[in-house]
Amino acid sequence: MDNITTDICIVGAGPVGLFAVFEAGLLKMRCHVVDALPAVGGQLSEIYPKKPIYDIPGFPEVLAGDLVKNLEQQIAPFHPTFTLGERVEDLEKQEDGSFIVRTVEGTEIACKVVVIAGGLGSFEPRKPAIERLEKYEKKGVEYMVRDPEVFRDKRVVLAGGGDSALDWTIYLAGLCKELTLVHRGTSFRGAPESAAKVVSMAEEGQIKLILKSNVSEVQGEEALEAVTVMVDNKEPYRIDTDYFIPLFGLVPKLGPIENWGLELDKNAIVVNTEDYSTNIPGVYAIGDINTYPGKLKLILCGFHESALMAQSAYNIIYPDKKFVLKYTTVNGIQELQ
């Protein structure tokens, strides 16, 4: 059992949690970061490290994994500490207003402020109702793309109509021997630009696009060999394939956080947009795990929330000091450490 003392305990080592370390570090607040995953980066590292991201200011395009590496480099001067591969289980408020955060492995983090940056919380892929689908998991059936190189020169069938399905169709088209996108509708839920590009690629013969359809069956001996596609409730037909990747999103679950006495709205934590504080003084929630009127689940919004959170947390960590906003362009990182 480890016993750690810090100023701020950040629950979640995704991009927003990492940037919160930077914002806290500028104000000379120490951070300890806890995450159930064995490495930092959250979904960016676990689900799509090779996926390009286009809405980070200053980066016309950056791979998700590279963004994580940049964030690690950015926070390195502030020497954060980490507990990885351990899920946070319990939050106990002390008489003096501080907290003890405990993990399932028995690690205890004593802190004055808790910042929940858990993204979607605990999550698992939403699986289609296809008989025997589980039989082929890791044997041709995947629910996310971790390494695109796995699919080089392979026959791949993707299913879905959201951003993830569209983005991976565009990205994998140049890698796969054959690529088919199956979508149950005639329009897409993802970005219009991505949808238009996928349609154009289909018209040019780069991919095969099957609309008003769904995969109804999977076949194979030891590993996946083919899928059956039902088109507009007509006669089904077989597509020989090496991989089937249904991309129907993730099912978020708050896990133990649900029992901490926080005000919740469905699977999200309600916050005050003045500083992204929760109904428990000293506990903040930033990133995709929070909710408020007008909430946008974007990384850049989580970055903004991190900055306002840190300014508010400063008053808890240093109640007798006057807060002075510091600009890195004036002082530089080394001087602000």
From TrEMBL:
<feature type="binding site">
    <location>
        <position position="329"/>
    </location>
    <ligand>
        <name>FAD</name>
    </ligand>
</feature>
<dbReference type="InterPro" id="IPR036188">
    <property type="entry name" value="FAD/NAD-bd_sf"/>
</dbReference>
<dbReference type="GO" id="GO:0050661">
    <property type="term" value="F:NADP binding"/>
</dbReference>
<comment type="similarity">
    <text>Belongs to the ferredoxin--NADP reductase type 2 family.</text>
</comment>
<keyword id="KW-0285">Flavoprotein</keyword>
<feature type="domain" description="FAD/NAD(P)-binding">
    <location>
        <begin position="7"/>
        <end position="293"/>
    </location>
</feature>
<comment type="subunit">
    <text>Homodimer.</text>
</comment>
<keyword id="KW-0560">Oxidoreductase</keyword>
<feature type="binding site">
    <location>
        <position position="48"/>
    </location>
    <ligand>
        <name>FAD</name>
    </ligand>
</feature>
<feature type="binding site">
    <location>
        <position position="43"/>
    </location>
    <ligand>
        <name>FAD</name>
    </ligand>
</feature>
<dbReference type="InterPro" id="IPR022890">
    <property type="entry name" value="Fd--NADP_Rdtase_type_2"/>
</dbReference>
<dbReference type="InterPro" id="IPR050097">
    <property type="entry name" value="Ferredoxin-NADP_redctase_2"/>
</dbReference>
<protein>
    <recommendedName>
        <fullName>Ferredoxin--NADP reductase</fullName>
        <ecNumber>1.18.1.2</ecNumber>
    </recommendedName>
</protein>
<dbReference type="GO" id="GO:0004324">
    <property type="term" value="F:ferredoxin-NADP+ reductase activity"/>
</dbReference>
<keyword id="KW-0521">NADP</keyword>
<feature type="binding site">
    <location>
        <position position="123"/>
    </location>
    <ligand>
        <name>FAD</name>
    </ligand>
</feature>
<keyword id="KW-0274">FAD</keyword>
<feature type="binding site">
    <location>
        <position position="35"/>
    </location>
    <ligand>
        <name>FAD</name>
    </ligand>
</feature>
<dbReference type="InterPro" id="IPR023753">
    <property type="entry name" value="FAD/NAD-binding_dom"/>
</dbReference>
<dbReference type="GO" id="GO:0050660">
    <property type="term" value="F:flavin adenine dinucleotide binding"/>
</dbReference>
<feature type="binding site">
    <location>
        <position position="88"/>
    </location>
    <ligand>
        <name>FAD</name>
    </ligand>
</feature>
<feature type="binding site">
    <location>
        <position position="288"/>
    </location>
    <ligand>
        <name>FAD</name>
    </ligand>
</feature>
<dbReference type="Pfam" id="PF07992">
    <property type="entry name" value="Pyr_redox_2"/>
</dbReference>
